[in-house]
Specification:
Strand content: under 5%
Structural class: mainly alpha
Number of strands: 2
Shape: globular
Order of helices and strands: HHHEHHHHHHHHHEHHHHHHHH
Number of helices: 20
Oligomer: single chain
Helix content: 55-70%
Distance between the termini: 35 Å
Strand order of the largest sheet: 1-2
Amino acid sequence: MSKLNNESLLYGLNDRIPVIPAVFTAVQHMLASIVGIVTPPLIIGQALGLTQWLPYLISMSLFASGVGTVIQAVRFRNIGAGMICLQGTSFAFLGVIIAGGLLLKREGDSAEQILAMIFGCTVVAAIIPLIVSQFIHSFSRLLTPLVTGIVIVLIGISLIRVSITDWGGGFGAADFASPHNLGLGLFTLFIIVLMNCSRRPWCKLSSIVVGIVAGTLLASLLGKFHPHFSPDLLPILPSPFRFGISFSWTVFIPIALVSLISIIETVGDLTANCMLSQQPVVGAEFQKRIRAGILGDGVSCLVAAVFSSFPNTTFAQNNGVIQMTQVASRYAGIWIGGLFILLGLFPPVSQLLEQLPKPVLGGATLVMFGSVVAAGIRIMTRETLDSRGMLIIALSFSVGIGIESQPNFLSAMPQFFQTLFQNAVTSGGTLALLLNLLLPKTKENNDG
């Protein structure tokens, strides 16, 4: 890494990081993503009546996220991007998995049979990114900076919606948007911003941790935080194919379509990560890193399915942590993965983290998710935008954000189409991809 890059990052991509800064970094990445990792199994489990298996599903989500994060950081035999690419349970698969599970439930399948079918289909679907990764150079015409930038911005906008909801108290909270909740989130956000304005590296490095701890302490003083633990303190041991394995084309096809589209999201996240880690975002080295990252995503999804966790993806919000902490060392990624593996094996720790006050988490993640949007804008505008680019941006944002804000817009479409395109990332990102492919190139830039 050049001297210039070392001056702008506390720890560069290949810099070895001391233990104490590594732990601080790992905890901040963990706090930024743990809610996102445990929420999908909670939603799926509650929707499909899998309450009995929820503790195991949540623990395995944390375990699989840790293993996948280590795979991405280590980059063994060109598997993994060799960066801090935190792997977490993907929200994109929620709709198709729940729809498939409800179909099986109506047919009389038990909870174990439903899970066997879901994990059997996700095992096969994990092969898709493995194959696509080998031909990613052929997709360079499709996955341009304009398209990936649009996808990153849409990801950030979707995440900000989650932050604001948490800041208010969480979805369906009886005291949503109460003065206490708004005050807790604002206090947490203020502490983080204040510490990031400091010139001391340690203040920036520990800003998110300190902000969340301070916010949680204030919540405790206000009587808003009452942690409780399960009496069962025994470690949960991972068991391959715990529920068996089966397959159905009806369940598989929608999952496969989401797997294909989620590759666009992964490319966007990896591109943002390269930029924040001060690595090339064009050329042969960039293409090789993207190929290895997509391959790492596929292996991560395969590990997740084997150990009874839902499909993984590279989390966008952790790019915001890299930007705020200025720590891009891939060795920190190994610490992050190890921390999640431990959380998956020891439920009491994860139980405490799951119970952190939502307004505190909302205030802490808001600035990070906003950083994701900023990173997407930087990528999107790296080249001069002509009228064609402006049209693609306008249509992609309008359709993507519009459909996510009004999902009933697609109610007349087939169910799999609804579940596939009801969020901003899949609808807006797919439209950006198609428009970039179909609209003729202009000569405005050459004439200027």
